[in-house]
Structure formats: C-alpha cells, structure tokens
Amino acid sequence: MTLQIEWLGSPNKESGRRGLRVEAIVVHIMDGTLTGTDAWFANPAAAVSAHYGIGTAGQIHQYVAESDTAWHAGRRSRPTWRLIRPTPNPNFYTIGIEHEGRADTPWSEAMLAAGTQLAAEICNRWSIPVDRDHLIGHREIYALKSCPGSWVKLDDWVRRVRQDVLAPATYNFVSQVGVVVTRSPLNLRQGAPTTLAPVVATAQLGATLSFVGWTSNGLTVNGNAHWYRTEADLYFWAGATRQPVPGVKPVGRG
Questions:
Q1: Burial code of 173-188, b = ≥16 C-beta within 10 A, e = fewer?
Q2: What is the DSSP letter of 74?
Q3: pLDDT grade, residue 248 (50/70/90)?
Q4: Alpha carbon distance 178, 210 (integer Å)
Q5: pLDDT, tens only, 175-203
Q6: 78: three-class secondary structure by DSSP
Q7: Cβ neighbours of 99 (radius 10 Å)
C-alpha cells in the first residue's frame, strides 16, 4: 500500500539538523483534532510543530521535512529514554508523529495502520532499529505529560511497525529480469528487503545472481535503498553488487 501524504508545511522549524542524523521516532497524541493541529502548527506564535500528523480516518499530513528539525520534543522532565543525549535537545535527532485524539481516546484501525506504516517507512529511510529504544513515547522525554496517552500500548505499536517492515506490500516493486554479480559476500533474505528478514543463503564474492525485479524503498544501507528480488522471493541488497542502482548501467561498462 502506497501512503498518501498531504504536505501542509509549518513555519515552526529549523532548517537542517545541525549535523546530526535521525536516530529515533517520537510518538505523540494531539490532545485535539487534526484540523486544529493543522491550524496550530501553521501559527508562528505557537512555536511548536511535528513532522507528521495522522488523522482518525488514516489521512497523513506533513508539516516539516524529515531532514529539518521540528519543534515537538525539545523540553525535558525526568526523561526515561535510555538513548537520550545530554545535549542538544532531542528535536535535532528525532522525527515526531502526532495522532488525532486525546490521551484516553481509542485509536482507530485506520489511524494505527497509517501511523505504523509511516513509521516503518521512516525506519527504512533512516536505518532506525525497530525497537523500543528507537520508537518512543513523548512522555519518555517529558514526564510532565502522559503523551501519547493511556490507550496506545507502545510495545504493541512497535510490534505493528515491525510487521509492516516485514510485509512485502510495504515496498514498491519494479518487474525487470536480469543478472548481477556480487562485489562482496551477500546475504539473501526471505520475504522483505530489510536486515530484519531472515537470511536463507549467502552468495560469495563474484557470484552471479538472477533477479526478477527490484525495489527502491527497502532498508537504506550506506545511503542505498535498492534491493533486488529473486524468483523465489529472496531479497538481496543492490549495493553489494556491481550494479548498485537497478536500471542504471554502471559507469565505464559496456
């Protein structure tokens, strides 16, 4: 399933991340409606924002680019997040996802499905481990709030994100038949283009591998998110082959 994301933008941000990279996702509750959050994040006087907002019907709004810093988790109070840094504030190395509703409001299946798939795609883009150290609730940074509330169970939410990462439907697929040669030993993984998928075979340096297609939104490894797929539904990372970008002829080769 391809996510439909509507860009709204927000003036409440900082361009870039001061040289840091995204390391975690912070889950929030809006304590209100998606419409109200859209308006609040558009107001410079609010001085707050998040990267994304998810509505109860599953709609996704984006306010800040992932490569920029949103103002969603900068304050600290008795933090329990194990990986929090002394400085700078967590905004510079996290992505914030807001969810419509209040602390005790049940989350709709549509909102859960959209939010977990979005988180799965973010984890793949930024090579974020899918675990409770890297997918956290806002209250784990700022204990004066219960955010994201009492209804959602974060352990269960992370399990759903992991399921999405391992689901073939999460990824695009371009049908194309061909062969590539490995330039280092290479694992072949069952079912999904991610290191979370189990290894079922290893190809050695110089091996020729056949493929029936490829995806461009698998787990990003060393800046490359391309993975090939074999006829047996095994995936292998394109970056360890002599054709690291599928469909593009390597420079200097006939």
A1: eeeeeeebebeeebbb
A2: -
A3: confident
A4: 6
A5: 999 999 999 999 999 999 999 999 999 99
A6: coil
A7: 29
Q: What is the pLDDT of residue 252?
A: 52
Q: Which two tokens stand for residue 154?
A: 């974060």
Where residue 144 falls among pLDDT bands split at 50, 70, 90? very high
Q: Which residues face 241 on adjacent strands?
A: 182
Any idea what the Cα angle at residue 94 is, between residues 226 and 37, rounded to 5°? 110
Query: What's the alpha-carbon Rg for the chain, to the nearest Å?
Result: 20
Whether 53 and 98 have beta carbons less than 8 Å apart is answered as: yes
Residues 113-133: pLDDT tens digits? 999 999 999 999 999 999 999
Q: Give Cβ neighbours of residue 207 (< 8 Å, ≥ 6 apart).
A: 181, 182, 186
DSSP 170-226: GS--EEEEEEEEBSS-EEEEESSSSTTSPEEEEEPTT-EEEEEEEESSS--BTTB--
Distance CA 158, CA 120 (A): 9
The two three-digit tokens of residue 118, written as one number: 């979005």
Structural tokens at position 93 = 């190395």
Query: Per the confidence metrics, is the pTM higher than 0.90?
Result: yes
Q: Position 155: which residue type?
A: D
Could you give the CA distance from residue 202 to residue 200 in angstroms, rounded to a whole number? 7
Backbone angles phi, psi at 180, to 5 degrees: -135, 160
What share of the chain in percent tops pLDDT 70? 98
| b/e 143-166 (16+ beta carbons within 10 angstroms → b) | eebebbbeebeeeebbebbbebbb
What residue spans of 34-128 are helical by DSSP H? 34-41, 109-126
Collapse the DSSP code of 107 into the 3-class scheme (helix H, G, I; strand E, B; otherwise coil) and give the result. Answer: coil
